[in-house]
Here is the input.
Amino acid sequence: MLDILILMVSFALALSLFRFLRGPTLTDRVVAFDVMSIVATALLVILSVYFGRSIYLDVALVFGLIGFLGTVVFGRFIEKAV
Amino acid sequence: MLHFIGTVLAFAGAASLIVSAIGIVRMPDIFSRMHAGTKASTLGILLIIAAAVCFQPAWSLKLLLLALFVLMTNPLSSSALALASYKMGVPHAGGEMDDLERDGLYREPHPLSPGDVQEGEEAIPTKEES
Here is the structure.
């Protein structure tokens, strides 16, 4: 059952990766990156249940933090155009 | 019983994530892409975290921390991105009204404004596609 879940979430990851590669403007890519980081966090939660290790939840937390920081920094960078 | 509830929640969350990814691919405009991408994916990851609580009740504290973190950071990042893309002057798909422009609060021209899109790409997918 969890295999099908991993496949579904990986499909969502691949779709947003398509927008990340194709997106015409810069902010399209950053939005796609934001969605990709959220989907990857969900994938890490599913993997922690799949392997039965709670240490992967720490990885998910840190990954969410890094993705959030990257998105906000890119947003500020675009806004101020440093 | 708890296992069954967890299964239903996990599949609903994965379906919501797929819907958000399809919205990212199919929507014509940056703001509608953001609308599809951020809200549906927030719902999806919250449902998946609830499913993980149903599967492993001993990890509730860490999962609750992760859910609170996601609830705090997702609206912040999407708000920063929306403000940045509005100030950048990303072209719209049409059919909307700009209140700031109507009230005379129009923005300054932005240095990173996408005046010239790369060749082979259209700034907005045209309406004949769909």
Remarks:
- The helical segments of chain A are 2-22, 26-51, 55-80.
